[in-house]
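Hello,

Our lab assistant flagged a job as stuck in the queue for most of the afternoon. It eventually completed. Since we weren't sure the result was trustworthy after the delay, we are filing this so someone can double-check. Below is the sequence as submitted and the structure that was eventually returned. Let us know if re-running is recommended.
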Amino acid sequence: MSKFCIRIVLLLLILFFYSERICSQNYQLADSILRVAEQSNSDSIKMMCYSRLSEFYRGINAEKQLFYSNKTIFHANQINNMHFAIFGKLKRVVSIFDMGETDNAFKEMEKVIKEAEAYNDSSLLASIYNQCGVLHRQTSNFSEAMKYLTKAIKIAEEIGREYDAAGSYNNIAIIYNSQGDTSKALEYFKYAIEIYKKDVNKTNYAKLLVNTAIIYTHKKEYNKALEMTNEAMEIWVKMDKKAAIGETYSCLADIYDAMGDDKNAFKYLNKSLEIRTALNNRRGIAESYGRLGNFYFKQKQFQLAIPILEKAISMAKEFSLLELEKESHNLLYKIYKETKDYQSALQSLNNYLIIKDSLFNTENLKTIELLKNKLDKEKNERELELTNIKLKNSELELNKQKQKFIFSIGASALLICIVLLIIAQQIKSKRINKILNDKNRLIEEKNKSITDSINYAKRIQSAILPSLKSVELVLPECFILYKPKDIVAGDFYWFEKNENSVLYAAADCTGHGVPGAMVSVVCNNALNRSVREFNITEPGKILDKTRELVVQEFSKSDEDVKDGMDISICNLDVSSKNQITLKWAGANNPLWIIRNNKLIEYKPDKQPIGKTENPSPFITQLIPLSKNDIIYIFTDGYADQFGGENGKKFKAAQLKELLLSINHKTLKEQESVINTVFETWKGKNEQVDDVCIIGVKV
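-- returned structure --
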């Protein structure tokens, strides 16, 4: 159960995380993941589902993020999965931080770091150091932020994780910008953008566009700032990222405010506040209040500015947003001074200076500078190391040249002989290379000819198979999953419509590729003759006659040919709407029916279609059907596929569980899920056999 469900979860997670075309349905996918978690008995599946849900609710609902983080930790501990347990604890820290419990969040973070360092997973540790740096940056503790971000970059670069390093560079750029070093900030932003631009998931790229737009706003390059912000907005809208849209509206407000466009600045400030309020993003609401208070101050609407700024200060204290609290006190000081409320102005000024001193004391700035120098020093050391290696290589090369020169003086005669030998060898090598090139060209031409022939055989085999449109006209609720291992296949599906019934089958001929395809042509022709020429409609007798024709065809050869096929064949009587009867026979391949969420299996005759010892007549089984029954026939390629975490076979038992878990879906949805689970299970492994599965709903 666990392995097949993991594949379903992976399907949902991949769709949820990467697809921009369905991002407007993220909440539906979140609900789907939750249903899978609640219906599964596997701790592995529950752990993966809850981990994805906790990530989804970040920035949207901190309480839900905390809830699902705790569930992730619980189920990870149940199966001793330390990686997910630690990662779940990291997400729990973030949710506690977003809920305003800053001190508690940092205490929890210390425990997570110690646990991760003991576990010694470099990739996980880099993520944790980066997140710790982000939290310190958000509380304006820039020295601690730089310390952890520098650690994250060092690990990420050592293990070749350039995307992780880019994230940390982005956060360092934000710190430089807050310190007024826009040139350094822009340098790091551009570096990170070039890395994230290559990523399929544009989330980090869009974030960097917004951050870089802020720098261009400070540099008064407003057109460039608007261009980057609008590009980011297009990405967020496609991905339906409400929280990010709110952040970007706030950035647009800043740009228009800097341009002196009060109308647009006020418009986007309110849009940002509306979204953050709808999401209950209290940290974002606090920031919006600060910006709105600043706007009212510039408009000299002091009576509107004062209560807004007081709200901003209150919420800034709640979330330890020292920079916001400082600037809000500064604005209140200016307002009270302007309105001649000197006592309140003095109090606001005092608060402003206290926070400013805590943010920009000499020791703090010195620590940031030391960390900056350390980061630059490490880069310079790496560059110097590369330069030294090049110099050493150059010295070695120079010494070799000197030795060659000395040797040439003392042994000029021998050198001439060597040169002659080399020339002779080159002539011989050219001759051999020409022969090899000619042979390679001939092989390529033959390979192309063979491939062209096989492709032509595929067109012939495709012409033999019934079209899906013709099948769906008679069986509107059905699917056919057909996945050849090679260009041509030994598996095939077969369909024949009579006056009152429909005959269809899934067949697996001996072998796959070209040999299997050749056998499939013989077997397909025998099936057609049994029905069309000999007018047989009973499945068991069809298989008897087909076996007779196949054996007869192969007996023409001087060799003892034992090739044949395994098959499951159905005769579905559709003449009566009240009672539908299924006649079925199988040669080594069974029939499954799902009725009322239960799977009923009908066993086949244990003999193939082909030459065999002690052949016996195939038995036709009469099966009364009920409304909404789903009939499945298939070959063994799906169950025999190697893959998963341990490289084992998928097996029939797991296929049964998969079909039971999705029987409530439409047949087309079932086909999509079955195909995706197969591809996920297979992974990078080679497909071992042809695959054919037919599902029909009554």
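-- support follow-up --
The delay was a queue issue, not a problem with the job. The result is valid. The mean pLDDT is 83. The CA atoms of residues 500 and 576 lie 9 Å apart.
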